[in-house]
Design a protein that fits this description.
The complex is a heterodimer of chains A (350) and B (290). Helices cover 69% and strands 5% of the residues of chain A. Chain A has 350 residues and is mainly alpha-helical. Chain A has a domain of 227 residues. A two-stranded antiparallel ribbon of chain A has the order 1-2. A two-stranded antiparallel ribbon of chain A has the order 3-4. In chain A, helix 2 packs across helix 11, helix 7 packs across helix 8 and helix 8 packs across helix 10. The longest helix of chain A is centred in the N-terminal third of the chain and has 27 residues. The radius of gyration of chain A is 21 Å and the shape is globular. Helix content of chain B is 74%, strand content 2%. Chain B contains 11 helices and 2 strands, in the order H-H-H-H-E-E-H-H-H-H-H-H-H. In chain B, a hairpin with a 2-residue loop joins strand 1 and strand 2. Chain B is globular and about 60 Å long. The chains are: A mainly alpha (350), B mainly alpha (290).
Chain lengths: 350, 290
């Protein structure tokens, strides 16, 4: 009964927030936090379920944002060799889907290229990719306006044939839009990791050579995870662009990837609820801290917290709480002591 | 052609300091398997120490350089003892997350201490450049190259001619056997990290006066150092040296003839291309230190 009641309870809380929370600033924080939670959920699919630490995740977020914004704004660029591409503006909703698709395609390309390497090398390839995309956004001024930013990005307008149209203007409406996309992302990731494909991903995280020896096509599953993850990150980016109505190349800053990573590891990687719990903490923490200290101090706290969490709570909050509750319910079983580092036995020294 | 020669000269000078960064990181990465995100912050740290000494306190420039390198060695040893030693045996991702945390803390401490405004360091070298045919180079840059080459040769000798170097090479080849033979692995780890950090601080101390000192200067330095290590092959000092010069050359040519906006993208493109087509690095023999 608990298992069914709890998600229903949270869903009700989630859907009724604008009814009892009238403060526009608080709603704004909820919207941006929600967008980053969607991005963190997509990162968790790679980091938590396939065990690949992608530190270039912000690239997919930014590509989604730029693709969506440019599709709805229109552009006129001249490619190499004088080949001119003109694009008339499309509705923002179409932009959203274009953003998702383009982010997914770049996830495929990067997955194909970078899953040839693992571990540290994979991390460095992904960081490099994000930096290259940032430099393209800065330098391809004709397309992206460079540091001058893309402005006047239109809001989402939904057409209902025969009923007229509805434009997402108010914060309340935008909140529901973010919740809707978030729920879809949650369900997609949940279904995926619960399926045969998800079990294959977890298997290759646990032991890649064993997984491939029983016939799991490692690269195929990793690329699939990268595509889904990138597409969801792209959807978050698109929501971000159309909500703020302005984006600049700073959207690709490494610090946003760090924010996503910190959300995932704090909440608990490899759990569905982890990124949400971590996301709420790190969505609201800066707002509270900001009124007391300078931004530099805020980031020092972030970094220090990150180190502390890895040392003290390596599995994250959600698994630790689950174990604690399980231990409490069974009474006799004490909650297991917090594991060391990743909780596994020491790796083979090389 | 004249312009090309000038680019070449610039590349050689930049390459010397890039090589220092790369050697430091390749030792740490090779011996400890730590993806050291703080490497660039030690580079920035070195530059700020020179600024503090020379520009704020008015100490002699050359003494300031020596202090910066020493401070880098000490800070590196401290990081190893405080963060990395307790994590020995943890998986590579865990260590990486801790290093990212340390990186954020260090960078923002610099921002807090010095503010976001770029600082410049005045040096005792004459304003008039050294002119050789069509190429002109400032005396400061000549000095930077000379010191960098000296440090490169010094590290090479340290690794190949001293007992510590033998311990480092043995640990790289086979950690367990080295430990059985009585090599103090903990000591080797600390020494390696301190040495690598000292070289990064030296690179920062040398380039700080050439460019400007900013709190974010370390970000690109870290990533460029990774590019150099990957180019040269893991743990390969000669590879890192050549990698440093190659990266500097590609950047100079890219900035000069393609687009200066994409200067910093060259390193990342190199990383992607090398890892995809020749993941062992350009100069890989078997994986070994030396």
């Amino acid at each position: 009964m608990m298992k069914r009641a709890l998600p229903a309870f949270w869903l009700v809380v989630l859907l009724t927030v604008p009814l009892w929370l009238q403060d526009q600033y608080a709603l704004h924080i909820l919207i941006t936090t929600g967008i980053f939670i969607i991005a963190a959920m997509s990162l968790n699919l790679l980091l938590g379920y396939t065990g690949q630490l992608s530190l270039g995740h912000v690239a997919f977020f930014g590509i989604g944002a730029y693709a969506s914004a440019l599709t709805s704004l229109g552009f006129d660029v001249e490619l190499l060799g004088g080949f001119r591409v003109v694009h008339e503006s499309w509705p923002a909703v179409a932009g959203f889907f274009v953003g998702v698709v383009i982010a997914g395609i770049s996830g495929y390309v990067i997955g194909r290229l970078s899953f040839q390497v693992r571990g540290a090398y994979f991390v460095i390839v992904t960081i490099s990719f994000a930096e290259v995309t940032r430099l393209v956004a800065v330098n391809w001024v004709e397309l992206t306006q460079g540091p001058l930013a893309l402005t006047n990005i239109p809001p989402f307008t939904f057409e209902f044939p025969g009923l007229g149209s509805y434009t997402v203007w108010s914060k309340t409406a935008y909140y529901y839009l973010v919740v809707a996309v978030g729920l879809v992302a949650y369900i997609v990731i949940g279904r995926l990791v619960g399926s045969r494909i998800g079990r294959a991903m977890i298997a290759l995280k646990e032991n890649e050579s064993l997984a491939s020896s029983v016939g799991i096509d490692v690269t195929r599953y990793l690329v699939l995870a990268a595509v889904v993850s990138a597409a969801i990150a792209g959807s978050a980016g698109s929501l971000y662009a159309h909500y703020l109505k302005i984006i600049d190349p700073d959207i690709f800053l490494f610090i946003y990837t760090v924010t996503m990573v910190i959300m995932v590891i704090t909440g608990g990687k490899g759990t569905l609820a982890g990124p949400i719990v971590g996301g709420i903490i790190f969505g609201f923490l800066p707002v509270i801290v900001r009124s007391y200290v300078a931004p530099a101090v805020q980031w020092i706290l972030y970094g220090g917290l990150m180190v502390l969490i890895v040392f003290l709570l390596p599995q994250g909050i959600v698994p630790a709480t689950e174990r604690w509750i399980a231990g409490w319910m069974h009474g006799r079983r004490k909650p297991p002591a917090v594991g060391w580092a990743n909780g596994s036995e020491p790796r083979e020294q090389k | 052609m004249d312009q090309f020669l000038q680019h070449l000269a610039n590349a050689v000078i930049l390459g010397g300091t890039y090589a220092l960064l790369g050697i430091g990181l390749t030792l740490i990465f090779g011996i400890m398997r730590v993806v050291n995100f703080t490497h660039g912050e030690l580079y920035a740290f070195g530059a700020y120490i020179v600024y503090l000494m020379a520009a704020v306190l008015g100490v002699n420039f050359f003494i300031a350089l020596a202090v910066a390198v020493t401070a880098g060695v000490l800070l590196g040893a401290l990081i190893e003892l405080a963060l990395l030693r307790p994590l020995r045996g943890a998986d590579i991702d865990t260590v990486m997350l801790v290093m990212i945390g340390a990186w954020i803390v260090m960078q923002n401490t610099e921002l807090l201490a010095w503010g976001g405004v770029a600082k410049s360091i005045v040096t005792p070298f004459p304003e008039t450049p050294l002119v050789i045919g069509p190429v002109s180079i400032s005396w400061l840059r000549v000095f930077v190259l000379a010191v960098a080459l000296l440090l490169i040769v010094g590290s090479y000798l340290l690794i190949h001619r001293t007992k510590l170097g033998k311990g480092i090479r043995a640990t790289f080849q086979d950690r367990d056997t080295a430990a059985l033979m009585g090599v103090n692995i903990d000591g080797i780890n600390t020494a390696t990290f301190a040495l690598g950090s000292g070289l990064a601080a030296a690179a920062g101390a040398l380039l700080g006066p050439v460019f400007l000192v900013t709190p974010t200067m370390g970000d690109l330095a870290s990533l460029k150092a990774f590019a150099i290590v990957i180019l040269g092959g893991l743990g390969n000092i000669t590879g890192a040296t050549l990698g440093g010069f190659i990266l500097a050359f590609v950047e100079e040519i890219g900035a000069g003839y393609i687009s200066s906006g994409y200067r910093d993208a060259m390193g990342f493109l190199i990383i992607i291309v090398v890892l995809v087509f020749k993941p062992t690095g350009l100069f890989a023999r078997a994986e070994r230190i030396g």
